Amino acid sequence: MIDRYSLSVSADKILKQSSKNADFKHIRSFNINPLQKASIFIEDGGIKHRHAVWGLLPHFSKELVNRGNLFNAYSEGISSKPSYRIPIRQRRCLIPADSYYVQSENQWYRVLRRDRSVLFFAGIYDTIVLDDNEYISFSLVTIAPNRDLISLKKEMPVTLTDEVFNAWLSPETSLKTVLSYLKPSENYQWIYYPISNAVATDGHNGPDVHDEIQSERTLFDLV
Predict the structure, then answer these.
(1) What CATH class does 4-221 carry?
(2) Could you say which DSSP state residue 28 is in?
(3) HSE-CB of 51 using CA atoms within 13 angstroms
């Protein structure tokens, strides 16, 4: 389960890596968690940026009550689950990030690329219109971890490369092709380090969230 991530880099860095729309203005945050608004990219007559709530509220919901339960969509069986079966076919998104956080054995860790590059997580989104107001929300797609992260004993986000961005976003892409993208990242690309458990405190959002703390881990723990 991934319930916190960060997007603290500049818009220029995101645009340079992804060649997205130049009018992109994102919400910068060191600690994004469910039911907060965050940046996503969708296909809507071209690739567009949107601010959406993290935690899917399916289009068939009868009222605008989002408890944030659907913030992760595990890849296995995603195409058949009621809340996900239409979004995975027609409403996919990219979620920009620079790291994510997991708790393992009562310790929080920051997980990121070795090269500190911008990440683009695979996501699905949905919209609901109630009282003439459009509400857009999303889930982050997760999968079993690769070798780099298996010792954390947590799922990892499905992270896409720029070669498949357009195909992932396009509603014309076949389900078979879409599902083929749902796989762990290649090994030897990820690192992680311990951070303060204060990351789990509501409202704690500043550069210090990224600070590494002293740990009893040895070099043999860093895969």
Answers:
(1) alpha beta
(2) -
(3) 10
